[in-house]
């Protein structure tokens, strides 16, 4: 007995030694490996999938580039594992550029950037690069989703019959506040300027669930929140979260006979889960931004940048060039489609500028005086929601 | 039809539970089976109901050998048992409980049968009531009817009157007599002599796993008592009565829960140097008495004083009692007094009064080795308590006993010991403890009590029914008091 | 004695070997079903955990809090208590530490870190004490009391992060504001585990061994765990020792919470405990409640946790597979415990 035990132990040890021997596959020198850290699952039909597909496009269009990735990077899914750990892993696999796709990763990416000065970092949605003291190898990238949200709000207000729009918000920060506000401005424009209705008859309510997607027991359940919206009389729900619960609930309601619709968020294929209830989807296209940074890093022309990329107004849905798009959905009426196109054109040529005074904050204090137009910085750091919106500002 | 046990024996390892037991129960009779706890009644009945296998002997029904390897076979032979605690499903209704185990009947037939049987035996049972709301007696009635309905021919009753009211007893007894008259064999297991006398046609007495007596009605009680408890010659050489000193333990109007009946209005005083034996059937209150004195059971009412100090009515009482040098050795050593997987020397460490922060293994080993040699324990200081035999466990407990104890409480100190070891234990207690130490002990062996005590307390159903100096009473009187017979002296 | 112990050792090594084989077999089966290459998967986990000093230090950063929780549990398991509330005790330790770190006006980082350390012990042990009191005074079994308190602690930390301790202008489940750098436990360059954390972990391990094996407390806890009724005859109060053991366990868990805040996340997040409390429960059971096996099994669990990150990177396997492998370990654990009990009974 004893002998066989020792024998087995030895065999086990031998196997382990064998496994230990370094067999890391060396990437060829021409390869440019970039790592992607996604906060949610790579197939979430939302935020993370948009990044994942942009990465795939980079692999396709930039020769020699190769993506490695880790998804579900959040403390609930990966207990005890921090961003610097994961960056260590990606770097040890040869990554020369790391993309962190969540606001949530701000601190971790900053820390990792300091630990690995020779690796380049892109933090999506952050603004570290605006700070002169921040590390030189850390840049920021964001799309001007404000326009997409204005269009979503416009489409919602043109469609609603009850005059009640629900906005399913993630957590409260500067980004989400400015996106909700943009959505509201688009809706108000449609309501007052196109439909010529009383602004007081438009209800725009924001409910925050607490995170970008559902974490059972931690966030509010987005499915439940969406149901509550419909139950309280809203007939269009706009989603600001990374996943498609609002659309699925709307689709169920529609199948039950209710005349309702929803607008998902941030992934071009967002409508696919339930096309019949989908008015359209404002989405990010990360390819142009990624390509910019990957090329710079590859060609040693990297510099610290803070990029806030807008749509290509002539062709919003061109994946190669437009960072922001809006894909019309099946539920969007033909007339509304035309009016939306006109609205978009107005946004593009500057004839419609929604962040222009007079605009008040939710607490009635003045945001923009009459005729005043907000600067990028004012929009980026929007301190609270706007007058006319319901929901928490902090 | 008759049931005959022929030379039945049963051993659990080296312990013999039954030795050569033979008896016959005839159809149409109620056959009493009496004896002290541990006499072997339950084992014999478990063999008959197929819950335990026998080591030797045969069981005959109508002269033919039957094999009763499992309860199902026994049931097929028409053997049914009514347990002390009703074996029913409390959330179900009376009718549902009645239906359990009866295959292929429809509800209406069963309801009819249940009502029929109820009327026949004078039971008042509502078929749709939930069993939860019924008394133990009523639940017993359902069980009884169910057994009758299942064509039971041999009915075993295990202490059937324990949990039921006198009124229910009045209903049960005629029902049993009627069943016997209908040709059923009824085996009644009991230690209540009066009940046995009123119900039974024949009685068999078991003691230490053997049949000591068999008789038919009418019964002569002294005869039965002697058979149950054994006869000992009256104590000739009374141990020198120790000097009686000041009161050591005083209980005043103590009421406490515990065992079967608890302990009621107990007022008693134990003097310095006394040796008191507590007699009584198992669970009559002796153990509760000992635990009250040790501070392990908290009285519901009344006060307990040890050496003039009142014991507090909270769990710290046992700590107080120990501080007053009161020691208690329970009967169930591994369950209540020792730690199975802890070494002997660690037991000594744990028992030490002034405990240091660190363990001192050498000191403990020294203590243990001393204890092992003075008490001739067969074992090493590294052995665990579970490794020791029962006798050596008892020796270990004696070795752990504080030699400065002023009151020693012992629950069945010779339990599981052979005669020599038992004698040795008493030698040790008498010789090693100072003269002024009081000893209170319980024992199921009357001779042990008579032999070693100065004074005897007899317990019956939670009452102290007799308090007498050993010189002023007789073996028979004690036995009768134990059996609850007030009129017999 | 030596004979029996060598027999036990042999039994133990068989158990471990059997466990290893079971885990491997189970894992291989699941991987095959999932269509993943078995050896490549396991190799990558191994490499992901031990291929470099950085990796090893990452593993150690998981090892430390896991070991701390396991040490705490050794005390409660000794007394035969199921301290499932360990998870909440970690959380309350983290909250205690954070509360101290937020005290305004203390400039000295060493002082405030020391304060946080003690506050975490207080937070954890207080939570343990609650579970203990629920058991001893309220008659609530420690499993239910502990689970209830875990929920309360989880709710409390969420409330703090979403409410009073949120980042200015942001209400997010992503946690409180990052601690200032000088309050991070120092980590040598290239390392991912703080020296302080390692020192604390190893000291607690040694202290636990001393207390359990060399002190009267350990012996008394053993006695109570085996037979609380008999303990009273030795003037050992089961209630007092239940409370002591669960307070110590809470203290150890609290320190784990402290390290999660100051050395790993540098802030308070909703899942600050990382599930180490529950993992440690399994670990201690797998170790057969022996302290000698705890550090090694903790290393194994930590390595699995860290190494599994390689799977999505290298093999594009769904990251959930690492969870499946952990599940296999847990199942094998339960299986071995079952076998062990059966063997004991027979």
List the helices and strands and how they pair.
The complex is a heterotrimer of chains A (394), B (489) and C (346).
Chain A lengths: L1 H19 L11 E6 L9 H15 L3 E6 L12 H10 L4 E4 L5 H10 L4 E5 L13 E6 L1 H15 L4 E6 L4 H21 L8 E6 L13 H10 L4 E4 L5 H11 L5 E3 L16 E5 L2 H12 L7 E4 L14 E5 L5 H16 L9 E2 L5 E3 L7 H5 L8 E2 L4
Helix pairs in contact in A: 2-9, 3-4, 5-6, 5-10, 7-8
Chain B lengths: L1 E11 L2 E12 L3 E5 L6 H8 L7 E6 L2 E2 L5 H6 L2 E4 L11 H6 L7 H15 L14 H14 L4 E5 L7 H16 L3 E6 L2 H7 L2 E6 L2 E7 L4 H9 L17 E10 L6 E9 L3 E6 L5 H8 L7 E6 L2 E2 L6 H7 L2 E4 L3 H4 L7 H8 L9 H14 L15 H11 L6 E5 L7 H14 L5 E5 L3 H7 L2 E6 L2 E7 L5 H8 L7
Parallel strand pairs in B: 3-8, 3-9, 6-7, 7-8, 13-18, 13-19, 16-17, 17-18
Antiparallel strand pairs in B: 1-2, 1-4, 4-5, 9-10, 11-12, 11-14, 14-15, 19-20
Helix pairs in contact in B: 12-13
Chain C lengths: L1 H33 L3 H13 L2 H26 L7 H16 L7 H28 L5 H21 L32 H20 L1 H11 L1 H6 L4 H28 L10 H11 L7 H14 L2 H6 L4 H26 L1
Helix pairs in contact in C: 1-14, 2-3, 2-12, 3-7, 3-8, 3-10, 3-11, 3-12, 4-5, 4-6, 4-10, 4-11, 5-6, 5-10, 7-8, 8-10, 11-12
Into which percent range does the helicity of residues of chain C fall?
over 70%
Percent in helix of chain A: 25-40%
Shape of chain A: globular
Low-confidence stretches of chain A: 16-27
What do these coordinates show?
The complex is a heterotrimer of chains A (about 400), B (about 500) and C (about 350). Chain A is an alpha/beta fold and about 400 residues long. Chain A is about 35% helix and about 15% strand. Chain A contains eleven helices and 15 strands. Chain A has helices at about 1-20, 45-60, 85-90, 105-115, 145-160, 175-195, 220-230, 245-255, 285-300, 335-350, 375-380; strands at about 30-35, 65-70, 95-100, 120-125, 140-145, 165-170, 205-210, 235-240, 260-265, 280-285, 305-310, 325-330, 360, 365-370, 390. In chain A, the strands form four sheets. In chain A, strands 2-1-3-4-5-11 form a six-stranded parallel beta sheet, sandwiched between helices. A five-stranded parallel beta sheet of chain A has the order 9-8-6-7-15, sandwiched between helices. Chain A is globular. Mean pLDDT of chain A is about 90; it is low at about 15-25. Chain B has about 500 residues and is α/β, with parallel strands linked by helices. Chain B has two domains: about 1-230, Rossmann fold, CATH 3.40.50.300; about 245-325 and about 400-480, P-loop containing nucleotide triphosphate hydrolases (Rossmann fold, 3-Layer(aba) Sandwich). Chain B is built from 17 helices and 20 strands. Chain B has helices spanning about 40-50, 70-75, 95-100, 105-120, 135-150, 165-180, 195-200, 220-230, 285-295, 315-325, 335, 345-350, 360-375, 390-400, 420-430, 445-450, 475-480, and strands at about 1-10, 15-25, 30-35, 55-60, 65, 80, 155-160, 185-190, 200-205, 210-215, 245-255, 265-270, 275-280, 300-305, 310, 325-330, 405-410, 440, 455-460, 465-470. The longest helix of chain B is centred in the middle third of the chain and has 16 residues, at about 165-180. The radius of gyration of chain B is 25 Å and the shape is elongated. The two termini of chain B are about 40 Å apart. The relative contact order of chain B is 0.11. With about 350 residues, chain C is mainly alpha-helical. Chain C is built from 14 helices and no strands. Chain C is globular, with a radius of gyration of 21 Å. The model of chain C has no long low-confidence stretch (mean pLDDT about 90). Chains in contact: A-C, B-C. Chains A and C meet through helix 1, strand 2 and helix 3 of A and helix 1, helix 2, helix 3, helix 6 and helix 13 of C.
